[in-house]
Amino acid sequence: MSPDSAVELTVVTLGDSVLDCRHYNAFGLEPGQLLVRNADQLFPEFRGRDLASRRPVRLDHRAIDGATVEDLPDQVVGLTADEPSIALLSVGGNDLMAGLLADGGPGVEAFAARLQRFLEALTVRPVYVATVYDPTFGDDREPFLGVDPAIGRANHRRVNAVLSAAGQRFGAVVDLHAHFLTGDPTWFTQTIEPSLRGASEIRRAFLERIFA
């Protein structure tokens, strides 16, 4: 993204609760909002480090808590690719919980094919594609969804490989998985959802890639 411009930038958020998490904190904030305009009183570290500090910007929030890859086409109905624009995408976590963690067949390949079709049809570029974080912080002693950790982690890696490839092709990869491994349980609420701190850390990861 060019660093400075007088032309308004549109930021489109797509996907799941990673980007649609305002109802999981008392301030009603989510990563897209913080990325566009920081809440200076809550996060003074990011004062002046938001998109609004560089250029006119608006948020087109379309991500929906609970969404899977199959829901993405519905999120872009009526979307027009105003220029300039960027898209933030987080998907895959709910697909893993819905069965891909235990997948022993073509499930991940089907996920990859649906994601590919969606991104090929999406008119917004670039797309910043997030990997899926791990609420257990890599600790196999924390059972999650009753799946054998060896199988679950292998499929998690497969989904993240799909997401990374998509990011490399259509814009950039935002490695939330790696970033959240540096965090702690305060980044989450209700086991897997981003807390207020988590929303800010998601913002941090996207911001670093956008400003790279």
Automatic annotation (TrEMBL):
Supply the InterPro entries for this chain. Answer: SGNH_hydro (IPR013830), SGNH_hydro_sf (IPR036514)
Q: Which SUPFAM superfamilies match?
A: SGNH hydrolase
List, for all copies, the residue spans of the domain called SGNH hydrolase-type esterase: 14-189
Q: Name one GO molecular function term.
A: hydrolase activity, acting on ester bonds
Coiled-coil portions: none
What name goes with this protein? SGNH hydrolase-type esterase domain-containing protein
